[in-house]
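Case study 2.
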Amino acid sequence: MQQALKADYPQYTVVNASISGETTSGGLRRIDKALLEHKPAVVIIELGANDALRGTPNEETEKNLRAIITRSRHANAKVLLLGMQIPPNYGLDYAKRFGALYPKLARQQQVSLLPFMLEGIPADQFQSDNLHPDARAQARIMRHILQSLLPLLH
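Prediction:
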């Protein structure tokens, strides 16, 4: 991402404050410190899938994401929310409600939304768990996110 922004947006520095396997509750615990330390112009939120894979109630995931969005906006950062989808391990109803919480939050909180971060990734570019993309998919994911990020940089 940093390399992609370098030529046209050299004033922006990309900070990856993520932790592999993070949940929305972990993100919520860490967001205030990250906002204070980095003072971001834009916060990209990509959380929730690990909540769903652990069977966390959708209401709790939504509440945590709402709080992260609110805190980011109070820090004067624009927000890009990356939507996630999950397989129906916990039932089709749970998976549908999980996927629907992202557009709902984006609409309610008036933030930008990328409906599904992994859209368009070929099946052969996923690890054996069929959930996590492999290294070959990373450039495509970055370009997909960049399309939604660029309007927030103007």
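The two ends are 16 Å apart (CA to CA).
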